[in-house]
Write a structure and sequence with these properties.
The complex is a heterotetramer, with 2 copies of chain A (about 290 residues) and 2 copies of chain B (about 375 residues). Helix content of chain A is about 35%, strand content about 20%. With about 290 residues, chain A is an alpha/beta fold. Chain A folds into 2 domains: about 10-120, Rossmann fold (3-Layer(aba) Sandwich), CATH 3.40.50.720; about 140-285, Succinyl-CoA synthetase domains (Rossmann fold), CATH 3.40.50.261. In chain A, helix 5 crosses helix 10 and helix 6 runs parallel beside helix 7 (about 215-225). The longest helix of chain A is centred in the N-terminal third of the chain and has 13 residues, at about 20-30. The radius of gyration of chain A is 19 Å and the shape is globular. Chain A starts with 10 loop residues before the first strand and ends with a helix. With about 375 residues, chain B is an alpha+beta fold. Chain B has 3 domains: about 20-90, 2-Layer Sandwich (Dna Ligase, domain 1), CATH 3.30.1490.20; about 100-225, ATP-grasp fold, B domain (D-amino Acid Aminotransferase, Chain A, domain 1, 2-Layer Sandwich), CATH 3.30.470.20; about 230-375, Succinyl-CoA synthetase domains (Rossmann fold). Chain B has helices at about 5-15, 30-40, 65-75, 125-130, 150-160, 165-180, 230-240, 260-270, 285-300, 315-330, 345-355, 365-375, and strands at about 1-5, 20-25, 40-45, 60, 80, 85, 90, 100-105, 110-120, 135-140, 185-195, 200-205, 205-210, 245, 250-255, 275-280, 305-310, 335-345, 360. In chain B, strands 1, 8, 9, 10, 11, 12 and 13 form a 7-stranded antiparallel β-sheet that branches. In chain B, helix 2 crosses helix 3 (about 65-75), helix 5 packs across helix 6 and helix 9 crosses helix 10 (about 315-330). The longest helix of chain B is centred in the middle third of the chain and has 17 residues, at about 165-180. Classes of the chains: A alpha/beta (about 290), B alpha+beta (about 375). Chains in contact: A-B, A-C, B-D, C-D. At the A-B interface, helix 4, helix 5 and helix 8 of A face strand 8, strand 9, helix 4, strand 11 and helix 8 of B.
C-alpha cells in the first residue's frame, strides 16, 4: 500500500476541464487511480474522460454524488487558494495541490484554515504522490518508477523524476514517492511523511531530496535522529547557488534561520544520515546497502 | 518585486505614514528646483535597489544650491554594488533625535507575518542583532486575525519609545500592516524611523517588496516596475513568467523545475563548468515559453555553450523541441547546444531534433560533461 | 441602526452593486423632475423603516407625469404600520425576468455571519421558508476568513442562477460582504435581486442594518441617521446611550440592567399594570444619564406614574438619586414617583431623596404594587 | 471552593486606572481576591490601590512579573476586543470581561481566536463571578450574598443581584454566582457552567436565570435533561416584552430559531425543571425543597 492514501481512494480533480487538469486526470486514471469526479465552477453537468466522469460546480456536490475523499488541484494560481478553502470546507481527507505561483499571503491564510480542520494538504507546487503499480495522485510520470522498497520524499518535481528514474534504471524500486512542493509555505512537511514511511511495512529505506532555503530539512534531520530506525539517505541541491536576494534587513534576519546547502549538508552528515553528493551516486548508494 | 525608496515612500504617503518632504530627480536642474521648493537643507539619496548606499557615499547632505548641483552630479555618476544610479531623491534634511528599526516581514518557515522592531535603527541592524538577541523585538502576526494594537504596544515598550509617541507609533505601524496586507507585500521596512524635533515620528527610509506571485492583482503597482533598474534579461524573464538569475559563467542553462536546475548547476560546478545563469522554465511550459527562455540565454554574450536539460512530467518534450527549433531557425544560432530530453513525449521530442545538429545527451551527467567540454573550446 | 432604502442603495452603489437609476424626493415637484430626467416609466417607493410597503400600497408604478404627481401625493400622505411617509424614492421601472433573495446576516447564536439565498425572492420569503426548508440556501461564513468565492458559487448553484450570470453574481455578493464587513453591518439584504432584460442583475430593494455598538467608528454613516424617521423618544435615548423601547401603557419605567428591567415589566404585567416603556440606563450610569432617562419618560404624555427600580452594583444609588433630584426640580414634575433603591450606596441615595415626597418602596414587588395602584388613580 | 477559579488565583485587572477599573479592583481586593497587577497601556510603572499594586503596559509583562492567571477587563468598548486578544495571546487561563457595548463583529473574531486557545472567557457584558466568602472577580456586590449551597448562573447583572439578595434575606446561601453576560455573542454559555456546578461538591441546587432571545436556555435545558442530577430551578424574564425589531427578512429567519419567553418556559416545564414565575417566588421555591 502507498503511504498516506489507500490505493482505491476515490479522487476528484479540481480544474478537470482545464488543459492540464484533463491531461493529468487521464494519466492518473490510466495508471489505475479511481478518478470519480471533476469540479469546474460553471461546468457542472458536463462529462469528461470519454464522457465517463461527471463534472460538478462545487466540491460539496461532487462529494455528495460520488463519495470522493481526495482532491488533486490543477486550478490556476489566482483561484487555487479558493479551491483549497473549498476542499477543506467540504471535509475532504486529502488535498494534493499541483498549482504553482499562488500568492504567499493567500497561502498563509489557507494554512491557518487548514489547521482548524482534519484535512491533510500536500503542496502547493507539488508533483503529488506515486506509489508504483498502485496509485498516482498528481503529475509524477508513472513510467519512471517500478515497485520496490525505497520511500522517496522531495521538495522538487523534475529532480525527483530524474532520481527515481535513475534508481529504476539501476534496478531499484520505490514504495511511495511524494513531493511536498517547491513553495516556501506548504501543507505537510518532511516530518509527517518520514513518520509514515517509518511505519510503512513496504518501505525499507528512505531517500530525502532537499534544497536550499527553509527549515524543512533541519526539522527532518532532527526527526530522523530521534524517531527513524530505517536506513535514511539524503541529497541536497543548491550548493552552487548564489545567495538569495534580500528583502531588506528584516528579510535577512528572518532568512538567517533558514539554511544554505552547506549548512544543511553539515547537519545531515553530523546526524549520521548517508549523503549522496550527486545524482549519479544515488542509485549505487541506495542499492548497494 | 523590490521597489525604489521614492516609490516605497509614495505608498507610505498613501497610507498616512509620515515621510520627509521631497521628490525624485534625474538631473541637477530638477534637483535644484526641488531644493528651492523645500527652502531647507536637503539630503540627496541615490535610488538603487541595494543596501549600503550610505557607506558608498550615495546619501549626502547639501546646504546650498552649489552643493546640490555638485553632489547630484557626483551621485548620478556613481555605481553602487554594480548598479548605476539613475535617479536621486531630494528630501528636506530632518533633525534626528533617535533612530528605530521597524518592519513587517514574512516568516516563510512558519507561514506568518512577523512584526519586528529595534531601538538600534539607522545602522546595520543585522550585525547588531547577531551580537545581541535582545536588541530585536519580534512577534508573529496571526494571518487570519491581522496585526493587533496590543502587539504594536508590545513593540513600543520593547524599543523604549517615549510614551507620548505611542499613539502616533500605533497609527504608523497599523498603517504599515495595512500596506503589507493590501498590497501583498513580502516585506515592508522603515529603517530608520526617527524622532525629530522631540515629538514627531518620521520614516526616513522606506523599503517595500511585493510578492511576485501576487503582482497580477495590483495593476496600480506595475507603474513602479522600473525596467531601467532591472537587469535586461531578468526583466525579460519576469515578463515571460520564467525564473532567471544571472551568474558569472559561460554555460547558458535552461532546465524545467527549480530543483533539477539547481542539481544541474551543482553538477556543472562539480565538473569544473561555470553556469552563466539559473533558468527554470517551470512546469508545463509550452513551445512559446521555451522559445522565450532560449532567447534570453542568447541575449547573453558571455554564453559559449547552451545546456538544455528537460525531464518531462507536466512539461512535454515535443513542445520543448518545437520551441527550440523555432528559436534556432529564427536566430541562426551557431553556438553548440547540448540537449537532454527525458520523460513525457521524450522520443517525439528527440525525433523532432534529430536532424538539427544538436548534441544529444543520454542523461544529466552526460549532458553536463559535454557542456563543460564545449565551454572550454574556442570562442564563437 | 436601520437605514432607509435610498440610503442603503447609496451604499450599494459605493460598493459597485448595481441598482436602478433614481433619486429621493420629498414632494411631487421633485418627483416630476426625476421622472423627466429618467425618461422612462418609474416606480415610486415609500421610504419608511418597515416591511410590507408593497401590500400597503406604498410602491406604485407611474407611466406619465400626471401619474407621478398623483401617486407621489398619495404615498406622501400615507402612514405605513404607523409610520408617516416623508420621503419617496423615484426609480426607473425595471423589467423583471426572475427574482432572487440574497442576504448576509448575523447568526448571533453561533457568532458568525451567514450567507443566505433563495430563488423565491420578491415575496414574503419568511413564509415560503417556513413551509419549505429547501427554499433557502444558508451557509455560515468563518469570521476570520471572510466570505469565499466558493461559497458564493454554492449559493448560485442552490438558487439555480443561470450560469452566464455567475460571474456578475460573484461580484455582487463579494461586494455585499465587503459592505457588511467594512461598515459593521448586522444585516445586508437584497430582496429582490432581479434578472432584467435577460442578462443584467439588479438590486431592486436594499436593506442595511448597522450594529449600534459600532456606529462610533463609522462617522460617515451618521448622516444616514434620520431623526425624522425615528420616534422622538427613541432618538433621544439613543443619543444618550440608553436602551429605550416604547410600549403601550402608562407606567413610565426606569431600571438599571436589561434583565432587571424585563423582570420589572413582567411583574407589572402580572399585577395588572401597563408599562409605558422599557428603559435600561445600563451599568454605571451617572447622575446625568439618569437625568436624561427621566426626561425621556417625562416627555411621554401617557405616563401617569413613574417607577424607578435600581439595584446598584456598578451603578451607585447616590448618583441615581442626584440625577432624579436634578430633573424633578428642573421640570417641576407632579407625577407620583415610586422609587426603589438597593445595593451600592443605597442608604446614601435614600437619604438624599428622603425629604422629596417620593414613594419609597422596600423591594421590587412592593414597588410594582405601589406603581400599579398609582397608575389606576386619577389623571394628572 | 468556587467553580471555575480557585480562591487564591492571582488576578490582573485590564483598565485598572479607569474610574470603574479602580473602583472595582478595590472592591475585589477588599473581598479578599488576590489582585496582583493592573494593565493600562501607557501607564506602565505606576502603582495603584494604595500604591501597592503595580501597573504594566502589556498583559505579558504583567504576567511575567506577577504570575497572574486571570484577568478582569474594564477597558472601554472600543478597545475591549483588543484587550481580549491580548489576554488570550498572553495565555491567561481565565478572562472575565465586564465591558458592555463591544461591536458585534469584533466579538465574532475574538470568539474564533479564543477557540484556538486554552483560555476560558466569561462575558463580555458580564458581572463576573462571586463565590461568597471566598473570591470575587468582577462587579457583583459582595454584600448581597452569603455562603451556601445554591449555584446561580444568569445572563443578567442587576437581576441576579436582586435574586441573590432575596435568597440571602430568606436565609439562603450561594456556592458560586456567575453571570455569563448580557450580549448575544459570549465566551462561555450556560452549558459549560452547569457541568461545573454538577461536579462542584459545594453546590446542591442550581438556579438558572434566563432571558428572551438566543439559544442559551434551550441548550441548557437539553444539557440539564441529560447530564444534571442536582435539583435545578429556572427563572425566565421577558414574558411581557414586545417582539424584537427585525433586521429584515434574513434577521427574522435567523431569529426564529431563538426563543420567546413562552417558548423557553415551555421547554423548561417539559423538561421537568422547576420554574419560578416571579422573583418573589424564588427564595421559597429554592429553600423549601
Amino acid at each position: 500500500m502507498s503511504i498516506l492514501v489507500r490505493s482505491d481512494i476515490p479522487v476528484l480533480v479540481q480544474g478537470i476541464t482545464g488543459k492540464e487538469g484533463t491531461f493529468h486526470a487521464q494519466k492518473m486514471q490510466g495508471y489505475g487511480t479511481r478518478i470519480v469526479a471533476g469540479v469546474t465552477p460553471g461546468k457542472g453537468g458536463d462529462w469528461v474522460l470519454d464522457e465517463k466522469i461527471p463534472v460538478f460546480d462545487t466540491v460539496r456536490t461532487a462529494i455528495e454524488a460520488t463519495g470522493a475523499e481526495a482532491s488533486v488541484i490543477f486550478v490556476p494560481a489566482d483561484r487555487a487558494a479558493d479551491a483549497m478553502f473549498e476542499a477543506i470546507d467540504a471535509g475532504l481527507q486529502f488535498i494534493f495541490c499541483v498549482t504553482e505561483g499562488i500568492p504567499m499571503q493567500d497561502m498563509m491564510r489557507v494554512k491557518r484554515y487548514l489547521a482548524t480542520s482534519d484535512t491533510q494538504l500536500v503542496g502547493p507546487n507539488s508533483p503529488g504522490l506515486l506509489s508504483p503499480g498502485k496509485v498516482k495522485l498528481g503529475i509524477i510520470p508513472g513510467e519512471i518508477a517500478q515497485p520496490g522498497n525505497i520511500g522517496v520524499i522531495s521538495r522538487s518535481g523534475t529532480l525527483t523524476y530524474e532520481i527515481v528514474n535513475e534508481i529504476r534504471k539501476a534496478g531499484g524500486g520505490v514504495s511511495t514517492c511524494i513531493g511536498i512542493g517547491g513553495d516556501p509555505i506548504l501543507g505537510m512537511g518532511f516530518v509527517e511523511l518520514l513518520e509514515m514511511f517509518e511505519d510503512d511495512p513496504e518501505t525499507e529505506k528512505i531517500l530525502m531530496v532537499g534544497e536550499i532555503g527553509g527549515r524543512f530539512e533541519e526539522d527532518a534531520v532532527k526527526f530522523i535522529s530521534q524517531h527513524v530506525t530505517k536506513p535514511t539517505y539524503a541529497f541536497i541541491v543548491g550548493k552552487s547557488a548564489p545567495e538569495g536576494r534580500r528583502m531588506g534587513h528584516a528579510g535577512a534576519i528572518i532568512e538567517k534561520r533558514a539554511g544554505s546547502a552547506a549548512y544543511k549538508i553539515d547537519l545531515i552528515k553530523n546526524a549520521g544520515i548517508r549523503l549522496a553528493s550527486s545524482i549519479e551516486e544515488i542509485p549505487a548508494l541506495l542499492l548497494k546497502s | 518585486m523590490r521597489i525604489l525608496e521614492y516609490q516605497s515612500k509614495r505608498i507610505f504617503s498613501q497610507y498616512g505614514i509620515p515621510i520627509p518632504k521631497g521628490r525624485v530627480a534625474i538631473n541637477a536642474i530638477i534637483a535644484d528646483h526641488i531644493y528651492e521648493e523645500l527652502k531647507s537643507d536637503v539630503v540627496i539619496k541615490a535610488q538603487v535597489l541595494t543596501g549600503g548606499r550610505g557607506k558608498a557615499g550615495g546619501i549626502r547632505l547639501a546646504k546650498s544650491a552649489e552643493q546640490v548641483e555638485e553632489l547630484t552630479n557626483e551621485i548620478l555618476s556613481m555605481s553602487i554594488k554594480g548598479l548605476p544610479v539613475k535617479k536621486i531623491l531630494v528630501e528636506e534634511a530632518v533633525r534626528i533625535d533617535q533612530e528605530y528599526f521597524i518592519a513587517i516581514t514574512t516568516d516563510k518557515d512558519e507561514g506568518v507575518p512577523v512584526l519586528m522592531a529595534s531601538k538600534y535603527g539607522g545602522v546595520d541592524i543585522e550585525e547588531i542583532v547577531k551580537g545581541n538577541h535582545n536588541a530585536l523585538f519580534s512577534m508573529p502576526i496571526e494571518p487570519l486575525v491581522g496585526l493587533r494594537e496590543f502587539q504594536v504596544r508590545s513593540a513600543a515598550l520593547a524599543i523604549e519609545l517615549p510614551k507620548q509617541l505611542w499613539h502616533d507609533f500605533e497609527d504608523i505601524v497599523l498603517n504599515l500592516w495595512n500596506l503589507y496586507r493590501e498590497n501583498d507585500a513580502e516585506n515592508v521596512e522603515i529603517n530608520p524611523l526617527v524622532i525629530s524635533e522631540g515629538n514627531r515620528l518620521i520614516a526616513l527610509d522606506a523599503k517595500v517588496t511585493i510578492d511576485d506571485n501576487a503582482i497580477y492583482r495590483h495593476p496600480e503597482l506595475s507603474e513602479f516596475f522600473d525596467m531601467e533598474e532591472e537587469d535586461r534579461m531578468e526583466y525579460m524573464a519576469k515578463k515571460y513568467g520564467l525564473s532567471y538569475v544571472k551568474l558569472e559563467g559561460n554555460i547558458g542553462c535552461m532546465v524545467n523545475g527549480a530543483g533539477l536546475a539547481m542539481a544541474t548547476l551543482d553538477l556543472l560546478a562539480d565538473n569544473g563548468g561555470q553556469p552563466a545563469n539559473f533558468l527554470d522554465i517551470g512546469g508545463g511550459a509550452n513551445a512559446e515559453k521555451v522559445a522565450s527562455g532560449l532567447k534570453i540565454i542568447l541575449e547573453d554574450e558571455r554564453v559559449k555553450v547552451i545546456l538544455i536539460n528537460i525531464f518531462g512530467g507536466i512539461t512535454r518534450c515535443d513542445e520543448v523541441a518545437r520551441g527550440i527549433l523555432n528559436v534556432m531557425e529564427e536566430k541562426h544560432c551557431t553556438l553548440p547546444v547540448v540537449i537532454r530530453l527525458a520523460g513525457t513525449n521524450s522520443s517525439q521530442g528527440l525525433a523532432l531534433l534529430q536532424s538539427s545538429g544538436f548534441i544529444a545527451a543520454e542523461n544529466i551527467a552526460d549532458a553536463v560533461k559535454l557542456s563543460v567540454k564545449a565551454s572550454k573550446g574556442k570562442k564563437r
